[in-house]
Structure formats: C-alpha cells, structure tokens
Amino acid sequence: MLVDSPPEQRAEIAPAPPTRRAIRAFGLLASVGVLVLVALASIAIGAKALPLDQVWHGLFHDSGTYADVVVADRVSRTVLGLLVGAALGLSGAVLQALTRNPLADPGLLGINAGASAAVVTAITYFGVTSLSGYVWFAFFGAAAVGALVWFLGGSRGATPIRLALAGTAISAALYGYLQAVMIMDDAALGKMRFWTVGSLASATDTTIKQVVPFLAGGTIIALALARPLNAVAMGDDTARALGAHLNRTRALSMAAATVLCGAATAACGPIVFVGLMVPHVVRSFTGPDLRWILPYATVLSPVLLLGADVLGRMVVRPAELQVGIVTAVLGGPVFIYLVRRRRTARL
After folding, report:
1. pLDDT below 70 — which residues of the chain?
2. Rg, Å, the chain Cα set
C-alpha cells in the first residue's frame, strides 16, 4: 500500500553516532568479503566441480586445457552475475525510495515488461537471433516504457501513486501482447522460453562489454541520489522544506532505475525478487538512510544472484536450473512473509 512516507522516515534522518557508523562500515566490508567467496564458488562449482588449484590456474593461465576453458566460461558468467545483481538491487532500492513502497521492485514501473516485449518484437518481426541483438532491443524497450510511465505519471507533477499505477497498467498491456505473440509464433516461443525465465548461462565477454557502460552510468547516478532521495522518502512537504528538487530527483531516479534494470534485463532476461528482497532486508539493519542502503544493496544483491545461480547448477546436475527460477522459488515465500508482517502491512 502506498503512503506519503513510512513511519521510520517521517523524521529527518540524523547522522548516525560514530559507533553505529563504524558497525555499518564493518558490515559493508564483511559483505564484500562474502561476495568474494560467493564469486569464487560460482567459478569453482558447476556441472563438474573443479579443485581450487585448477581454478587458480585457469584464472591466471590459459593453456587450453578443459579446466582452463571451463574457468574462462564461468568467469564471464560470474562477472555478468556481479553486474546484473548489483544493478537489480540498486534499481530496486531506488524505486522503493521513489515510490515510498517497501515492496516495490523494477517490475512495478513496467521496465521488465518493456524489455521483454521489445525482445519478442525483435525475434518475431525483425528476425533477430543473437543475444547481442536482444541487448539493444531490450534496453530501448525498457527505456521507452520508463519514459512513457514518467509521462503518464504526470511528468513534472509525477507522484509515487501515479507512477505505480501507470507502470502497472502498462505492464499488464505489454505482457498481454507478449503472450499473444508467443502463442501465435512457435519460433518466437522456442527462442524466448529460456530468456524469459532469466539465466546467466549465455554470458559472454561481448555481452558484458555491451552492458557495462549503461550499468556504470546508472550506478553513478543512483549512488549520487542517496541524499536527495532521503529527503523525497520523507514526503513532499518535508523534502521541499529541506530544499530538495522533487521533480529533478524523481526524473533522475526514474532514469537511473530504467538504465540499470533495462541493461540487466537485456543481458539475461527478467529476474524477479532480487530488487525486492535485498533492499528490504538491508533496510532492516541499516535503517532508512539511503546513503547506506544503496551501497549495501549493490554488494549483497550479487551475493543472492550468484548464490542462486550456484544452487541452480547443483540441484539438477548435470543439467542446471535457470537462476530466474531459483530466485522466484526462494523469493515467493519471502515476499509472502514480508506482506504478512504487521509492520509492512501498515506502511
């Protein structure tokens, strides 16, 4: 339920005491350590587990052995997982602050639907068959929907409720279009069935190079918005009193979330719940200050995504379960728990 401001954000966010800041900084450093361990596990574990010495050799030598080739493929997959996970978590945190809805995620504003509809269109009507082609169509589809939601939401007069309603309506229409095209075109259905569930399996160096500029730009904008988003999250009147530029902050937040989620969806399909779960969990121990929520979400979201990817490779060996399926299975119960919490229900 959308409200003007969560209870814990109705008072101005005061600087944390030095001890608490030190604890948060230590926690962020520990989170980076966990991310490194999960990344190493992503490289070492797959359909066939590799000993650490072979992983080490494959990372720093390229002798053409089976292990070295496997490590090289897994490194690309892990790097893409790091980038996509960070983008989804960061975009989710920005959208939760922008809409003042602790259960918001990138799908709320139709960004995932725009990317998916663009890819289906590219396959069906333009004959695009390569992932490098999907990336551009998906990104521009997400950007177009983001701009349309901003326009329908009132542009300079946009409010959280208008943005959410516009995004929900556009998502419903686009997913109806997507399903209709896939039902009528068997070729499109066959090509889309793995992309639509979200997967890191098709990661390549080319894909990474294509999405890095967008992800880097979106990350810089999102992190720079931490302080003005703190003001916006406390309500329009309070934000104006604090000197925040509401329209500029909302426009930049929409742009950052669209770029981050659009590029991530383009690279590996729509992956759900990462942008919802991680920022919400992070907020429970950092408090409402986005200057901490955004960095934590950037680090811990790849932990969840890569962990889910590793789990998907282990449970059905020698095949694998796409990471989008794993995050959906894990995220469903968590989402139900969050919705049923009395505190969340009152927001």
Report:
1. 1-16, 62-64, 66-68, 131-132, 155-160, 187-188, 190-191, 193-195, 338-339, 341-347
2. 20
CA atoms of 227 and 335, how far apart (whole Å): 28
Tokens representing 105 are 């995620």
Q: Report the distance separating Cα 286 and Cα 70, nearest Å.
A: 38
Q: What is the pLDDT of residue 52?
A: 75
For the stretch 218-233, pLDDT in tens is 999 999 999 999 888 7
Distance CA 67, CA 48 (A): 10
Find where tokens 């719940």 sit: 273
CA–CA dist 143, 137 (Å, integer):
10
d(CA 203, CA 265): 13
Residue tagged 């049923």 (tokens):
340
Total residue length of the chain: 347
